[in-house]
Amino acid sequence: MTMTTRTRYVLLGGAGVMAVGLAGGLVAWVSSRLPPLVAQERPDELRYVPPEATILSFANVREVMDSNLRRRLREIQPELDGQREFQERTGIDLERDIDYIVGGLVPDGPDDTRGIAILAGSFDADRLETLALEQGGAASDYRGRRLITIPDESVAMAFLEAGVIAIGSEPLIKRTIDLPFAEGGVDSNDSLMGLLRHVERGSTAWTIGRLDDPRGGGWLPDEVEAQVSQVAAFAAGARVNGGVSGTLTAEARDEETGRNLRDLLQGFLALARLQVGSRPELRGLLDSIQLTAAGTNVTLTFDLPSDAVLELLPDRSDADVAAAP
Amino acid sequence: MADSHAAPALGPAALRVFDLGLGQMLWSRRTVFMALVAGGPVLIAVLLRALASLPVFDGGAGQIAGRPVSLDGPDIFGLMIWTFYLRFTVPVLGVFYGTALIADEVEDRTVTYLFTRPVARGAVLAGKYLAYLVCTAVVVLPSVMLVYFLVVPLLGGDIGRNFPALLVDLGLIGAGLAVYGAVFGLVGAWFRRPLLTGLVFVFGWEPLVVVLPGYMKYLSVAYYLQGLAPHAMPQGDALSVIQALLTSVQTPLGTWANLLALAVIWAAALAAAMRVVERREYVLGQ
Question: pTM for this structure?
Fold first, then answer.
């Protein structure tokens, strides 16, 4: 080769920039696709959710309750709807007792699903048991765990470990107690857990679900099920702090469906923007929504400051006046 | 015993011409023009980064001055790839370098020296074409890479998630340089005023036919390249107009059909250019 030194330098310089850029991009890409263990922390309690679950949710209740948004909300609405009733029936104070909740929908036969909720926090087990027994419940032991069933409501509660309780149907709760000794929990379901890559790390709450699992039908109303039949999976995540920001990603069955879904959502958004004149409180929400599509994925993101969230709430003063005798 | 004076085969001969031609091409005045064309987007990207550091961008991802915007770094990068590179830099470099592969030698009256060497005439064109590809790729592709790392992180963009799209963009730009270079290599070997012909093709013919209804668009390179551009364009109100303008020229052909069309154009143009150079008698003017 008769190439001069400076020509070699130029070639090496160009190749160097490309090599460094490609290596850096590759590392960033691999990092963005690492298993959900890195993309989104997995709570330990996932091991109590059966692996065949088709919908999985997580909510960091402590973070929500301590957030600025909740503090501002408390000034307007000191108690959440149904909060007192829930506490009277279960003995659990939503504001103080629960750190986080893991929930799942598990197929039960071809056309039915059952739900389970795993609550982690600080619970007074004796008081919860006494309250359940007062409401007609029956206490027993199953594999060394205290199991309380309330036959009238087909609901059972089990103390899985210190600070962790499960609520659901009795067969499902028993299955949950069996899981750590048997095949393991939902965190071994790569197809479902892989959807966590769409959820931003550190999200306060998230829900992921596979809609293309033939075992998972039955929980959606028929009309909705027909509408979402082309969606294979979804992932939604939200971060609550000063306001609420979040993403909702839908995985279509193929790229063409993905494009159609994006067009459909774009049409809905355009229609909503046209009609927002009569609901000015919705303008902030609509302005913050962004829609993007890549391959089979359609992603909708939003970011609402706390003022906009509070505007979306029903006017409590009117409600209180209406409810007053 | 092998004949040590036998003419080298096409491949080795082309590599020899490439070796000589690369240095000439890289240190010619055209390189200054190429540096400007490839450096412009980098400069704009640096300006965008500087703008992004202003207080109005403090709202974080997807916000400017506290107001949500439907545009982020990957969208801006997609627009830059489309407008600066695929619709300007690639065809313009193809014109300036491609038409000069043979025309410069004719103009400088050095073509005689090349054609009297014991190498096939087609190898001369092939070698110089290879030199053009390396010369432009070594400047344009790093420029794209720098723009990517400067622009994509803006407004909440993610370098990792958009990396596959960058690879597609680099491939598209490489394919564009190859196909435009081959086409204008043919123009340079065939036409008397190749630069003018090339500029008319790039700035007159292609922009016109790709937006006209009918089949004329199949006689362009831009049509197939744009059909391969992968970027999901932004969905905002104002930008939807740009999207409508850009997508109106998108091809209904599939990815493989576009790739096949580009491959056919490239192979046909390069083979035709080599054939023209082999057969044509270049008459040097006074």
Answer: 0.57
